[in-house]
Write a structure and sequence with these properties.
alpha/beta, six-stranded mixed sheet
Amino acid sequence: MTEEIIIAGFGGQGVLSMGQILCYSGVMEDREVSWMPSYGPEMRGGTANCITIISDSPISSPILTKFDTVIALNQPSLDRFESAVKPGGLLIYESSTILNPPTRTDIDILPIEAANEAAKLNNTKIMNMIVLGAFLKKKPIIEFDNILKGLKKVLPERYHHLLPLNEQALRRGMEIAENAVASV
């Protein structure tokens, strides 16, 4: 099993931490992992993305142009990376902020209103965990308990009081993805 993912959005949306959580969790399962961040000098508010690879075998290169999964958290990221999804791959996007939805018909597309869901949970910073939960429901490449351990590793200790809220957001994202699958 090899899953090649790019996660993209604005700086401050938790793009890089989503990739880190997947990689730490993969290491806990004795997987090969690669995490390659890319961001502009402005960080928060600028564009950011990370290529994340989880594999059962050695990873030859962290540099990719086509992905099994693209996770786009804003319109510029969707515009830039929609064409980078391999045919038959998965595109997850934060739909409450997207004006021009994806148009491809050869991939699986999952819109998630993660920003609205995060607002319902009274913390907009957990939007990325809702999206990550949806991804894990669609592609359960890592055990959920290891994702929680990876989250604890990535989240600074001063924010560990938010671990239960982040777990709730992950589970909410999984529910949304499961309902989206059931309604198709």
